[in-house]
Amino acid sequence: MTLKIERIAGEHTTVIRLIGRLRREHLSIVTKQIQSSTGAVTLDLAELTLISVEGVRFLNNCEDQGIAVANASPYVTDWMKREKTPTDESPC
Questions:
Q1: CB atoms inside a 10 Å sphere around CB 88
Q2: The pTM is what?
Q3: pLDDT interval class at 91 (50, 70, 90)
Q4: I need a labelling partner for 84 at 20 to 30 A (CA). Which of 14, 67, 74, 77 fits?
Q5: Is the torsion defined by CA of 56, 48, 63, 75 positive or negative?
Q6: Distance in angstroms (rounded) separating the CA atoms of residues 4 and 44
Q7: Could you tell me if 37 and 25 are in contact, meaning their C-beta atoms sit under 8 angstroms apart?
């Protein structure tokens, strides 16, 4: 399965449900869905099964822009936190 996008638009909110695998090649499509949405936007990740590092960085950028990320697995939320936190490790 690749990525399936379901969009549920209300009067003042839009929920964009991402189902399947979110990879770099899907980010422009998700961006277009967000840009064409009305009101507050929420990305629902309850049925997301796989995500790339570019997808994690995209989600962090969305949150920075005020877009809610809901129902992410603990693995994804931990990964998002790690991507936001700079590491102090020096290469050997």
A1: 5
A2: 0.89
A3: low
A4: 14
A5: negative
A6: 12
A7: no
Delineate the domains of the chain, giving CATH numbers in brackets: 3-84 (3.30.750.24)
Percent of the chain with pLDDT over 90: 86
Number of residues that make up the chain: 92
Give 19: exposed, middle or buried? Use CB within 10 Å, 0-12, 13-18, 19+: middle
3 state DSSP class of 5: strand
Closest CA to 67 of 5, 13, 21, 2: 13
Which pairing describes strands 13-22 and 3-9: parallel, antiparallel, or unpaired?
A: antiparallel
Confidence (pLDDT) at 85: 81
SS3 call for 14: strand
What confidence score (pLDDT) does residue 5 get? Answer: 97
